[in-house]
Amino acid sequence: MTTQLAIYDMDRTVTRRPTYGPFMWHAVRRLAPWRILFAPALLATGLLYLLRVIDRGRLKELNYRILIGRVAPEKLEQAIQDFAEAQVRTNVMEGARTRIAEDKAAGRRLVMATASYRLYAAAIAQRLGFDDVIATDIEYDAQGRTVARIDGRNCYGLGKLDMIEAWLQQQGLEREAVHIRFYSDHISDAPVHHWSDEAFAANAHDRLVRLAETEGWQVLDWRDRKRARPPSAPDRSPR
Description:
This protein has nine helices and seven strands, in the order βαααααβαββαβαβαβ. The protein is of the alpha/beta class and 239 residues long. The chain has a single domain, classed as HAD superfamily/HAD-like (Rossmann fold), CATH 3.40.50.1000. Strands 4-3-2-1-5-6-7 form a seven-stranded mixed sheet. A hairpin with a 5-residue loop joins β3 and β4. Residues 226-239 have low confidence and may be disordered.
């Protein structure tokens, strides 16, 4: 029997706004407000990224080290739960909630696949009824404190596809035995769109809309509108 999967990106696919920056600021205010003094250093890390001296994964590691550092999980947990609760309450598009509920009602296994840290993405996913989460993991030291290093790969671009395929293996699921719906807003997820059985460009920016039109993928717009937008009418509003 074919297993039905519905895989969703998170930021700007399910949520209206990105979650990484807001989580970092939420955590620093809750855990160590004095670290805000280090905020100017974020300009340097951002510049290194723009100059392509470092990649997205390294940017995440450096910013986490600057703003959060080593934290015991029990100290971090309440900040994570409070952040997730606020995101689900204020930052989830109603159209996304509706489609998630429809996929679940149809018997599809719901999977969130996001470049965001599992630390908080899992808490958001759990509240939305997801069954599984594929996300960027963080390392822990011998005392169980979070360390500003990514454990494995940043779940982004081709790395996301590799991590989804590795997850399928871990679950004992053969690619030929699953039917996969995939939803994302960003061109970086095009490898997963191409690999899936049903590809959806959700709340997509222009580059992904153009690719979706070429490939025949369905274009959805959940940005405070509940109707799907046909591929022939791409959204040209600024992102």
